[in-house]
């Protein structure tokens, strides 16, 4: 971070600037201090609606111009609404900063509020609200907030209710906008690579004429403190139980909050007693997480659990209550406190890696206190001691303030839960615990290493690609690669899983294994001074995995649970069904987790054999990107990874394709809250090594790559027929596939399919124009620059490209390939792939 400063215009607009010249990118964020917590019942949802409608046209820019202008210079534009603020932001190359400033200034000062667009957007927001009702994760959170907040506005959806949205009028929206979209109620945050004098000039040019004084904001009604715990339970047509535990907490601007946040991290992180017991040791839950809901006003700390299908919720309630009461008594190990403090500081430091996240972080701090406090956070955390943690635990972990929210196939027995709570409160116990910047080398054992030097960033990215994937599987062992990969971190000859997690946390190292269609990736992120430690941990994980039988059983049970719950998530389920349609159900291309019948047959011996066959040095490429010394790093890699054994030539992967003769299928789900259709239309596409691949990716971006794409503008924005629509492609060595996914109401299903096909045929017949191609290529080039902000992304990309046979320079040449794409190539590809013979359609409703 080079420099952080602020200044004010004469109209009282605050401007916060954080200069970071490590990458030619800038993030411009306009924050308005109005969100759902400051809306009355009469204007609930207005902040969120305005966030949508300002993009439909301003005094200078029409809707189509707004959606294309920022992408045309290689940037992105978006917005979001929170409880206390609304944010509009652009991220774009630094050379186009003036464009970003002008667009943001138009959005906050000169929106048109077109009557027709308001009508369309109301329907879109209503569909968005309906869609959220389909997701059980959204449902349990909504139930929790309504349970805990009967008066406070946290109990309402940020977008309002369907009825409130229906009642929105242009006059009401304009009044709300004029009341709160004022310079004294807003501030600008600019982070990234910029010139200070230029910033001052641009801000003066575009924002100095902004006038108005904010209306008085009405605080939310106060939630009365309760004197006894509360339990709310509902039945729903879902596969498992969803169970939340909520405690009231103070606002973010109180003295206690950073200590309280640390306390709940200790209670729920992946090294915690609760996580170990619920997830690792007893495998009782599919998910266990913490969500903090608060801001300028007091809120909630919510411990969220999703239970395994066969687990009774009463067992979970007892375990969590026992642990909470134990914490309340001050039984918190000092090592847990120090490890969590270190993890929190590392997480804070990582926020400086990306300019957008940095801008958001310091802006939220400005909302809650003042932006400069953000840079004092690390010092505050270091000062936290065990006594303070114990005092906060005693103060806030009050069972009489607890609210338990549940839904599942059957309601809870309230009397039984009350008995558990009473017993927990009475029982005393204690729990025990190839140039100067880029180089490639090969070790004697055949392991390839790609190194790249990036200055100024303290973060090192490690990407390791193994030449094995689901494509190496056959019909009898589908899912074995995903299962094997998921077990590598579950223990080795030196560390148990828990010990490994503790070691990673203490050193601020991120470590994950990701099975992909063409390879299996192992990714790590650390600070430069922890690189040696990271490589040692990588060696121990690859050289000495133990594949404990109990972990195999747990992982299998997790996979079974995911498979059983799949139709609770219609969007994901629709894509699985589509892949079954195009490839056949027994294909290794359908889903990497396999099927219950194949997973059941996989033994520990099979897993060990699979690992021994494929996870060999000569089948691995490692890439390290950061501010590193090449020679030193190579010696370190040889010391640790040079011990990996070299294997025989690995088996060539082979896709299993036995598609159905059908080209259309539909599936009816019976969710009581399902009012929508999910449409997946797609077909085959160029393969990973095709010369047409880049042109096809450009075609996909033109069609459905974002807010300025043809499908989004025509079907979502202009016609308002869908809540969301997108285009994606997945390419393998043998072939590629593409899908167009649309979320719509059942009533619009047929016309949406018709409109999608019309848009595809339009490109077949008429092609694209020069301006469209130029805008899209610039947008994709901007995305590449943004992606390269992450050393981890670069490392992973180089490793995969080199390992699968494209060569590491393939990553370096991305922009050149984009610049060589021609219009006639795109029309030729559209003609080849957008036809009825290649269309496969799956609908889930």
Description:
The chain has 845 residues and is of the alpha+beta class. It has four domains: 3-207, Cytochrome Bc1 Complex, Chain A, domain 1, CATH 3.30.830.10; 230-355 and 362-426, Metalloenzyme, LuxS/M16 peptidase-like (Cytochrome Bc1 Complex, Chain A, domain 1, 2-Layer Sandwich); 438-641, Metalloenzyme, LuxS/M16 peptidase-like (Cytochrome Bc1 Complex, Chain A, domain 1); 664-844, 2-Layer Sandwich (Cytochrome Bc1 Complex, Chain A, domain 1), CATH 3.30.830. Helix content is 44%, strand content 19%. The protein contains 32 helices and 22 strands. Strands 1-2-6-3-5-4 form a six-stranded mixed beta sheet, with helices on both faces. The protein has a six-stranded mixed beta sheet with strand order 12-13-17-14-16-15. A hairpin with a 4-residue loop joins strand 20 (722-731) and strand 21 (736-745). The longest helix is centred in the first third of the chain and has 18 residues, at 115-132. It is globular and about 75 Å long. The chain starts with a strand and ends with a strand.
Oligomeric state: single chain
Supply Rg.
27 Å
Strand fraction: 15-25%
Q: Overall 3D geometry? A: globular
Can you tell me the number of structural domains? Answer: 4
**Total of helices:** 32
Structural class: alpha+beta
